[in-house]
Specification:
53% of the residues lie in helices and 6% in strands. It contains 26 helices and twelve strands. It is elongated and about 85 Å long.
Length: 703
């Protein structure tokens, strides 16, 4: 992390002289080491050190303290802050290594990763180079279509983006505060800014935890906490015992957060106070000179060395983790990297961090052609950004060429009795139906949500925050006076069936309506937010509105499906999910069957990303049987399927196509030379299209 360097003695903030402090704080260097260690261990062993992500918060507090110390000391001694020089120092300190790793990410993505990953990686490399990666991730975090998107090689740059945005506005705020002569008013100004940010953090984390993790205003209070120490904390020296207790308590608080927190913790709201205040206690306790209880460990050469390379280590470790499965076949066992590979990643990250620090960070920071004039530094920054963005643009251009070719190849392969699910149809004698796929890479041609060209554009079904109707009409009736009306309704697990249903609609001249809302079970239940615990009012409003609208069209058929295994109902009755769903589904299905419809419940396909690595087929192209999973594991009980089986309404019918994904023992990820899945839990459009005849036969509809 770019936590700055402490060049020059730390003096009491707001004074030109005063008691001199050591120019170097080994306890802060130890905090850096602890912070980067927690982050790396969390990324490698996420189920062991579940809260290691708090290392980022440690860095933020350190940054607030160090940067404010520099700026306040300069303002106090010279009466001004040289903004150009300040920003130039930040550029020389942070950007060379950051640009190097981004360039590496572009090259590594091209040579090691499948082409469908190139576009997202290129986009995030550009966002990282321009330091707005956190805002891109915040936007994607509430976009349902991005939920299953794999992390990019530069995703960890979100924290660097937050930090750079802080560096942009913080000196300006301090300049404004220094126009106020009263020292207490300056302290109060920082305190007010921090309190406002903390309040916003608590509120926004409750409202939208996924977005709150990334956006800058939510994190400002952590920088402000460090800044308050720079303003006032270093003016006070604790007694020896108190200083030791403060430091040890601070380290213990950071460790407790790392061990006790996990991905379900409401973070970074009020819970972030634990690691942040812990960091502040260590810094405050360290204002007293001399050895402390933790000194034998914190000042040891390995800890100090790790703190020294912490920024480069943070930059390098993440892309190496993400690249390992592609660089080393067999790196994943049971969905996780082997300990040998993890140990190799740690070693490689440390070596890369040292080399980066030794040959890039340190030399460029003091390189005369750049350091002589701020303008030269900014010109170098612009050139570096342009070069990285150009490389990312080249990767995107190459990606688009691959997309075009893949679409042509797919169109040529879709016919034949042994293509995809047809290989398992009775009467089709297909050799080796579970053998290697023609293509293992899932690109735009394979997307289950690809809008059909002969229908109006899909509405924004994943961003209807107010639960508004999200209906698209595809009219293949050829002007019939009383067309056959058919609906496909549900969440993205209904949408993944639109390919074969559109095919049937064209053949049978249906008036087909589709309506989806991401993460929303279409049932009369007390639904919870997808991957959350709060009531999903948007979903409940939408389903209550749509159920009647569907009945009014007097449809012949209503096809419905959703991800009920992972979309929870909670009416606080203590009843099982199956019981709550059965009641809520029958309530809606009855309205449709009473209007004359036959309701076809499409059973969810076997699980993918929850039972095998999402990239399993990519990593085992020659032997996809390595990705086969026991049928009882891949297709566990499903409340939606159970409700359909239990329904006493003869016009409610279950369409269970599990036999086109599995044999009697195992479920497969490649069938008929086609990859079954597009991502962690949705079908490949190519495969779903091969099921049109199977759906028609099961439903008794001409296919």
């Amino acid at each position: 992390m770019g936590t700055g360097t402490l060049s020059g003695p730390v003096r009491p903030a707001g004074t030109a002289g005063g008691e001199r402090r050591p120019a170097f704080r080994p306890d802060i260097q130890a905090l850096r080491a602890a912070a980067v260690g927690l982050v790396v261990l969390n990324h490698l062993w996420p189920t062991r050190l579940t809260g290691g992500y708090v290392g980022v918060d440690v860095f933020f507090v350190i940054s607030g303290f160090l940067i404010t110390s520099h700026l306040v000391r300069e303002a106090a001694s010279t009466g001004r802050i040289r903004l150009a020089q300040f920003y130039a120092r930040r550029v020389r300190r942070l950007l060379p290594a950051a640009f190097l790793v981004l360039a590496f990410a572009v090259a590594a993505a091209y040579f090691l990763m499948p082409y469908p990953r190139w576009e997202a990686n290129a986009q995030e490399v550009v966002a990282s180079a321009l330091y707005w990666e956190n805002w891109l991730l915040a936007a994607n975090s509430v976009d349902y279509s991005h939920f299953n998107q794999s992390a990019s090689l530069s995703q960890h740059y979100w924290s660097l983006s937050v930090e750079e945005q802080f560096y942009l506005f913080w000196p300006l705020l301090l300049l404004l505060l220094f126009k106020i002569r009263a020292r207490w008013a300056r302290f109060a100004g920082v305190a007010i800014a921090g309190a406002a940010s903390l309040g916003f953090s608590i509120w926004f984390t409750d409202v939208s935890k996924s977005q709150a993790y990334f956006v800058t205003p939510v994190r400002v209070w952590e920088f402000a906490l460090g800044a308050l120490l720079a303003f006032g904390g270093v003016r006070f020296v604790l007694p020896k015992i108190a200083a030791n207790l403060a430091s040890v308590t601070g380290f213990a608080a950071i460790a407790a957060a790392a061990v006790l927190f996990d991905d379900q913790t409401a973070f970074p709201g009020a819970t972030a106070l634990l690691p942040a205040v812990g960091t502040a206690l260590v810094i405050f306790g360290g204002t007293r000179e001399g050895r402390q209880w933790h000194t034998p460990l914190s000042s040891s050469p390995p800890v100090q060395w790790l703190g020294n390379v912490s920024y480069s280590l943070y930059l390098w470790h993440w892309p190496l983790i993400m690249l390992a499965p592609f660089a080393f076949p067999g790196a994943l066992v049971a969905g996780a990297l082997t300990w040998q590979v993890k140990a190799g990643i740690v070693a490689a990250s440390l070596i890369a961090a040292y080399a980066s620090k030794r040959f890039v960070e340190d030399p460029v920071r003091t390189w005369q052609p750049l350091s002589r004039h701020a303008g030269a530094t900014f010109a170098g920054m612009a050139a570096g950004m342009l070069a990285v963005c150009a490389a990312a643009g080249g990767l995107t251009w190459t990606y688009e060429r691959h997309v075009d070719q893949a679409a042509r190849d797919l169109a040529a392969e879709m016919t034949g009795p042994c293509h995809g699910a047809r290989a398992l149809m009775a009467g089709n004698a297909c050799a080796d139906p579970f053998g290697p796929a023609r293509s293992v890479e899932m690109g735009p041609a394979n997307r289950y949500y690809t809008p059909p060209a002969d229908c109006p554009p899909l509405l924004s079904q994943y961003s209807a925050s107010d639960g508004t109707k999200t209906t698209t009409q595809c009219d293949f009736s050829q002007g019939a006076a009383n067309p056959t009306v058919v609906w496909l309704v549900g969440d993205s697990h209904a949408q993944q069936w639109q390919g074969p249903l559109l095919s049937l609609a064209r053949k049978n001249h249906w008036l087909l309506y589709t309506s989806y809302l991401g993460g929303c079970p279409f049932a009369d239940i007390e639904a919870l937010n997808y991957r959350g615990t709060a009531p999903d009012r948007r979903c409940m409003r939408w389903t209550k509105s749509m159920v009647g609208d569907i009945a009014k069209t007097r449809p012949a058929y209503v096809f419905t499906s959703f991800y009920s295994r992972h979309e929870r109902a909670d009416d606080h009755s203590g009843r099982s999910q199956a019981e709550q769903y059965q009641e809520g589904l029958n309530s809606y299905w009855t309205q449709w069957t009473s209007a004359g419809a036959t309701v076809f419940v499409l059973a969810d396909p076997p699980l993918n990303g929850l039972v095998r690595p999402t990239d399993c087929v990519v990593l085992n192209p020659d032997d996809p049987r390595q990705c086969a999973v026991d049928r009882s594991v891949a297709q566990p009980p499903d409340p939606l399927t159970a409700a359909a089986k239990a329904s006493a309404d003869p016009k409610v019918r279950l369409l269970d196509l599990t036999d086109y994904f599995c044999d009697r023992q195992r479920c497969y990820a490649v069938i008929g030379k086609v990859g079954v899945y597009y991502d962690a839990d949705h079908l490949n459009l190519d495969y779903s299209l091969s099921l049109d005849q199977s759906i028609a036969a099961a439903a008794g509809i001409p296919g």
